[in-house]
Every structure is written in structure tokens, then in C-alpha cells.
Automatic annotation (TrEMBL):
HAMAP family (alphabetical): MurA
Keyword Cell division: yes
A Pfam family annotated for this UniProt entry: EPSP_synthase
Name this protein carries in UniProt: UDP-N-acetylglucosamine 1-carboxyvinyltransferase
PANTHER family hit by this protein: UDP-N-ACETYLGLUCOSAMINE 1-CARBOXYVINYLTRANSFERASE (PTHR43783:SF1)
Organism: PS1 clade bacterium
Pathway assigned in UniProt: Cell wall biogenesis; peptidoglycan biosynthesis
BP GO terms, sorted: cell division; cell wall organization; peptidoglycan biosynthetic process; regulation of cell shape; UDP-N-acetylgalactosamine biosynthetic process
Length: 423
């Protein structure tokens, strides 16, 4: 298994191109199942997760093809015929977003057998919101033997779905299902994350009638069929955020190309409070680290436009060496602090009180062998390794490969001493 090795202490300088968004491209590829025509997605990242999903879609009957290179790269999905409506456990357990095929399969083929995803490292992650929403749209659902068996004889019918709280995945799935349901659906407490807006925009280009993207209420007039489309994927705000934090953590000076400050959302003001400078250059976002130690800054994760849970761990990486005590509260997932133990191995001083991590900044971190536990925890260890004195060796980097495209290449190009070793 590969390991990432980092010799820390080098300020990052130069330019990094931000990739297309993982959390947009996955539901966009799933949306390709809604039509028999070709869906072309441009600017997509090449990741372990997109390859896993390509296999899942292929088994259902879609032709998934990667094309181009570098900035011209993309992927197309063409599901002329659905040859299967079953997504087995071995796929869904590998990657949770595979569960989302439930929506398009039910909307287009009027039936689906999709494995329950089960819990995962960051929390229990139930699927009640998906199932209640689809039942409201007329689906008969039986959960048996670890599978969701769903049928919608005669097709899905429009419904009003009031989510009790915000769920990104349930919003994706219900929005896709409502596009082909008969009548007008209203979804309240919908997610307004940029990735949901991106998927909704692509669905509109496919002929869907969706109102309210980017707000908490979506109104969707079902149509009889959707067509293909040619869509460019939004840039990855979580990758961009991790790079911005790595620059701040190393007192570096880097322009993140292809994005503006808006993409960082609530991270931008938090980074300014922490002492980093951010300015737009016309081609991207210039990030300059604080002159001395970062300033301890509290954050609380919330649905968009609040501080993203996917940036909680990377932000904690920066706070490890901040001047003062920062309180970092996680309200989305109940077990998203696995990075704390690993950061402690590098010398961080962090204690947990319920849903809050209390980070007492130390002057320095020191390199050590550590282990990645999930996707965002692993990039946090990269940030911490870049800050630390000496060598950090990160095991289980397959977590990192799920969501960060060529990360060691991108960071080496801005001066980091980072490389991959195959064990
Ligand atoms: C998406 O997961 C993202 N995944 C996550 O990113 C991200 O952390 C999360 O949204 C929140 O922003 C992808 O886009 C592929 P949720 P999702 O449903 O949709 C609870 C990463 O690192 N819930 O918004 O699965 C759930 O347990 C990943 O890239 C229910 O209780 O998240 C959680 O506590 C990790 N019942 C909360 O809602 C349900 O039926 C929000 O989860 C559905 C969700």
C-alpha cells in the first residue's frame, strides 16, 4: 500500500489549479441514468471515487467514458438502456454516493434494489430522509436483507417533501426523482450547497423544470423525459479550501487558479480572522499566510452557507499551531474527529468535549508516522505534515486518493517536499 512522505517546514509558493468538484461530479454522473441520451461532463477530476462510480453505472447498463487530458478532461455517461436496477452491497459499501442511483432508477425504470450503505467512519449516516421522501412520491419501499427494494408502479408522483433537517444526498436524490415525477413537487429544507446548485443547473440543461436552486425551497415540475446535455462541473471548494489552509499553515504565498473567493464560502472570513490574507487576482484567489503564528479562531460546522463539515478537519490542522485556544464544533456528523488522535502524534494539543474540539495551539509540530482514517482527515495530516519539523509518513493514503487529484504533484509544484512511496 502506498504511503505519502513529507519533509515539513517549506513555505508553499506559486500557483495551484483547482480541480473539478468530487462532490458535484458524483451526483452528476448518477444523473446520467435519468436519460437515454449522452451526458457530457467537462472539467471533471480523475479520482478513485469517480472510477468506482463509473463501474457501478457500467453494471447498470451505462457507457461511461473518460476523455481528454488536463484542463480539457471530462467524462461522458450514456445510459441508452438500463440492463439492471440492482446496486449490490459490494458497490454501495465502497462508496456511499452509489446509493444515490436509487433516485434515477426509480424515476426512470420504476424499480430499484439498492443496498443500504451501512455506517461509516464519520458517523451512522442513516437514509430515512431518502426513503420517506420517495414514499411520499408514491414509491412502495421494503427494506429487507440489507436492501432497499423500491417500486413505483406507473411512475413516481409529485409530492411535497419537508425535510426535518438538511441533507445534501437526500436533496440530490429527491430533486432527480422529482424531475421525472408527474406533477409539481416542492422540497423544503433542501440543501443549497454549490454542488446541489451545480447538479440542478445540469438537470435544467437536460430539460428539467427546477425553481429555487441555491435556496432552501425547490419547486420542480416533472417532465416526461430528459435529454442529454454538455455541462462543465463546478470547481472543488473543499480541495481549494484544503490548499488555502496548507498555504496559510506554511506561511506561503500561492494563487489558487480558476476560483474566486465566493467558492470558499465561510472559510474565507475564518481564514482572515486567523491572520491569512486573501485577494482576487482575476485569474484566481491569492492566499498569503499570516506573518507570525495564526490567530486561534473558533468555527462551527453547519449546512451551506455555514462552515463546511468537509473543511473542519483541515481547519483544525491550521489551528494546531495557532496562538491561543480555538474551539471547533462539529454539528453535522457525530464522529468526525478521528484526525485528533493522529494530530496528537505530531505534537498537537487537542481535547474533546462532546461535539467540540478544543485546540490549544503549540509552537511547533514534529513529524511522525501517522495513519489516514477518512478522506478529509487524510488531507489534514498532509497539512500538518507540511507544517511539522522533520519527516511525516502517512499510511492508508487510499483515503486521500478518493478525493484529491494528484495531490503530491500539485503540492510539489509549489515547493513542498512531498512524495509517494509504494510499500
Ligand atoms: C455529502 O454527504 C457529502 N458527500 C459529504 O462529503 C459531506 O460531508 C456531507 O454531504 C455534508 O455536507 C458527497 O457529496 C459525496 P448529508 P451526505 O446527507 O449527502 C444525516 C466527503 O468527505 N442524515 O448532508 O451523505 C447524516 O447522517 C463527504 O467528501 C440522516 O440522518 O451527507 C448527517 O448527520 C463525507 N438521514 C447529516 O444528515 C438521512 O436520510 C447530513 O448528511 C440522510 C442524512
Amino acid at each position: 500500500m502506498d504511503e505519502i512522505v513529507i519533509e515539513g517546514g517549506v513555505p508553499l509558493r506559486g500557483e495551484i489549479a483547482v480541480s473539478g468538484s468530487k462532490n458535484a461530479v458524483l451526483p452528476l454522473m448518477v444523473a446520467g441514468l435519468l436519460t437515454d441520451e449522452k451526458l457530457v461532463l467537462r472539467g471533471t477530476p480523475r479520482l478513485a471515487d469517480t472510477r468506482t462510480l463509473a463501474k457501478v453505472l457500467g453494471e447498470l447498463g451505462a457507457a461511461v467514458e473518460e476523455f481528454g487530458d488536463g484542463p480539457g478532461e471530462g467524462v461522458s455517461v450514456q445510459a441508452t438502456d438500463l440492463v439492471s436496477t440492482r446496486a449490490p452491497y459490494e458497490w454501495v459499501s465502497k462508496m456511499r454516493a452509489s446509493f444515490w442511483v436509487l433516485g434515477p432508477l426509480l424515476a426512470r425504470a420504476h424499480q430499484a434494489q439498492v443496498s443500504l450503505p451501512g455506517g461509516c467512519a464519520i458517523g451512522t449516516r442513516p437514509v430515512d430522509l431518502y426513503l420517506n421522501g420517495l414514499e411520499a412520491m408514491g414509491a412502495d419501499i421494503v427494506v429487507e436483507g440489507g436492501y432497499v427494494n423500491a417500486t413505483a408502479k406507473g411512475g413516481l408522483k409529485a409530492a411535497r417533501v419537508d425535510f426535518p433537517f438538511v441533507s445534501v444526498g437526500a436533496t440530490h436524490v429527491l430533486m432527480m426523482a422529482a424531475c421525472l415525477a408527474k406533477g409539481t413537487s416542492v422540497i423544503t429544507n433542501a440543501a443549497s450547497e454549490p454542488e446541489v446548485v451545480d447538479v440542478g443547473t445540469c438537470l435544467q440543461a437536460m430539460g428539467a423544470k427546477i425553481d429555487g436552486l441555491g435556496t432552501r425551497t425547490l419547486t420542480i415540475d416533472g417532465v416526461a423525459r430528459l435529454s442529454g446535455a454538455d455541462h462543465t462541473v463546478t470547481r472543488d471548494r473543499i480541495e481549494a479550501g484544503a490548499f488555502a489552509l496548507a498555504v496559510a499553515a506554511t506561511h506561503g504565498d500561492v494563487t489558487l487558479t480558476g476560483i474566486d473567493e465566493n467558492l470558499l464560502g465561510a472559510l474565507a472570513p475564518a481564514m482572515r480572522l486567523a491572520g491569512a490574507e486573501l485577494s482576487e487576482t482575476g485569474t484566481g484567489l491569492h492566499v498569503k499566510g499570516p506573518r507570525g503564528r495564526a490567530i486561534a479562531t473558533p468555527v462551527t460546522t453547519e449546512p451551506y452557507p455555514g462552515f463546511a463539515t468537509d473543511l473542519q478537519a483541515p481547519f483544525m490542522g491550521l489551528m494546531c499551531c495557532a496562538d491561543g485556544v480555538s474551539r471547533i464544533r462539529e454539528t453535522i456528523f457525530e464522529n468526525r474527529f478521528m484526525h485528533v488522535q493522529e494530530l496528537a502524534r505530531l505534537g498537537a494539543d487537542i481535547s474533546l468535549e462532546g461535539d467540540t474540539a478544543i485546540v490549544t495551539g503549540v509552537e511547533k509540530l514534529f513529524g511522525a508516522p501517522v495513519m489516514a482514517t477518512d478522506l478529509r482527515a487524510s488531507v489534514t495530516l498532509v497539512i500538518a505534515g507540511l507544517m511539522a519539523e522533520g519527516q511525516t509518513r502517512i499510511a492508508r493514503v487510499y483515503h486521500l486518493d478518493r478525493g484529491y487529484e494528484r495531490i503530491e504533484e500539485k503540492l510539489s509544484a509549489v515547493g513542498a517536499k512531498i512524495w509517494r512511496e509504494s510499500q
